[in-house]
């Protein structure tokens, strides 16, 4: 039983799940968090571990997609039926009146780096804000109830928070990509 555990301080959770009638609330061999700052710290580390790498993978994908865009291929219409000689407006592109402007200030690589750094910043801020909210709410609930928090609780809540976060961004990311 340790009151100031170092991170991650995992222990066998079976000591918590076994029959606990007539036993002390803090089991020998367990690690418990009592201070809100410790709960926040543990939750923050787990949020960084679970949240930042996945968003960095998305940022890397966006970086390479912007740096090396896919080649544009013209799709030939392959219809089994003959056309009736009516021009199809979707198959013929409209002529442009002016050529597209090139960006004199930023190259494609610069824009890709900005997008990657944006992903990095958003992932770190999302993990920080999520850890602040979840960590201090958990600390408040456990303190109000008079319980000592196991070091497994911030781990589990970081997983829950990250999964809920990814469920919320899935549709918008797919539409953008």
UniProtKB/TrEMBL annotation:
UniProt keyword annotation of Transmembrane present: yes
UniProt keyword Transmembrane helix present: yes
Cellular location(s): Membrane
Chief location: membrane
Alphabetized UniProt keyword annotations: Membrane, Transmembrane, Transmembrane helix
UniProt similarity note: Belongs to the TMEM170 family.
Protein's name according to its UniProt entry: Integral membrane protein
